[in-house]
Design a protein that fits this description.
alpha/beta; three-stranded parallel sheet; about 40% helix; binds arginine
Length: about 270
């Protein structure tokens, strides 16, 4: 009897120890305090890593200009971040639900998106261009209207631009979950052209000479666009990141990252006008 009591006491003590251990491990999530000053929680940064050279996967790792850029900006702002590839549509869903803190994915700042999200100051100038086979008779945006099938990434400004030319409900527009799939469709002959961000398709042509594709520019048809970091509406970190974006542009860190990926000096003045 005495023995049984001892065993149950030991078990009770063990249970209490386990419970208190659970309690302490729980309290380490969120904002921690170490030596008096508060340490910020790691921010969740989401991307669609199928848009080289801005964001893509290399040996299972997410890399690209945007990734180096956001790392530099976060460091400047004093935040820890974790970048995760989730896909294009999920970026918007996660920011809506405030599951993610920042989206970086060559995201164009525009009025429609501004109604639902906050954006940082601009960090990159872009425009849509047309990717076609070398022997294509498509020479301008207007030629896309000549019974051509055009592949785009779903819910991008490329899709919007093509809808502007062919009409919103045109069955000549094939929409894909990511831009690599749109390019594959062109390669397989299922489309006559891809419309996407200039840097991405120019990079593709450079890296895949055997595909015999060329890039058509039409600055009268396609507007100038600027990329921004995207935040949930009302985000409290936006101000810190705006400050940090400006700082990395002004202190030369931006130019370093830019030269690593594009081998030329950036024109940072266009980001400020
Ligand atoms: N700049 C275009 C837009 O915002 C395309 C961006 C696509 N980005 C990507 N990672 N797939 O609509």
């Amino acid at each position: 009897m005495k023995q049984l009591k001892l065993v149950s006491t030991v078990l009770m003590v063990a249970l209490l120890l386990v419970l208190s251990a659970c309690g302490t491990s729980k309290s380490t999530s969120g904002t921690k305090t170490t030596g008096g000053d508060t340490e910020k929680k790691t921010l969740r940064v989401v991307t669609d890593a199928a848009y080289a050279p801005f964001e893509y996967q290399d040996k299972g790792e997410v890399v690209g200009f945007d990734i180096d850029f956001i790392n530099a900006v976060a460091k400047e702002a004093g935040y820890k971040i974790k970048v995760e590839h989730v896909g294009w549509d999920p970026i918007f869903v996660e920011l809506d639900k405030k599951i993610a803190d920042i989206g970086i994915s060559s995201i164009t700042i525009n009025d429609e998106r501004k109604q639902s999200y906050d954006f940082s100051v601009p960090y990159f100038l872009s425009t849509n261009k047309i990717l076609v086979p070398k022997d294509s008779d498509i020479k301008s945006a207007a030629d896309l209207k000549n019974n051509k099938t055009i592949a785009v990434q779903n819910a991008t400004t490329g899709q919007e631009a093509v809808e502007g030319l062919l009409g919103k409900n045109s069955d000549k527009i094939k929409k894909f979950e990511n831009n690599n799939l749109a390019i594959l469709e062109l390669k397989g002959g299922g489309a006559d052209a891809v419309v996407a961000d200039n840097t991405v398709i120019e990079e593709y042509v450079k890296n895949n000479p055997k595909d015999n594709f060329v890039v058509i520019e039409d600055s009268a048809a396609f507007a100038k666009e600027f990329y921004g970091l995207m935040f949930p509406k009302g985000s409290k970190i936006k101000a810190d990141f705006d400050k940090a974006v400006k700082a990395v542009i002004d202190n030369g860190t931006y130019a370093e990252v830019y030269k690593k990926w594009f081998k030329v000096e950036p024109d940072t003045q266009i980001l400020k006008d």
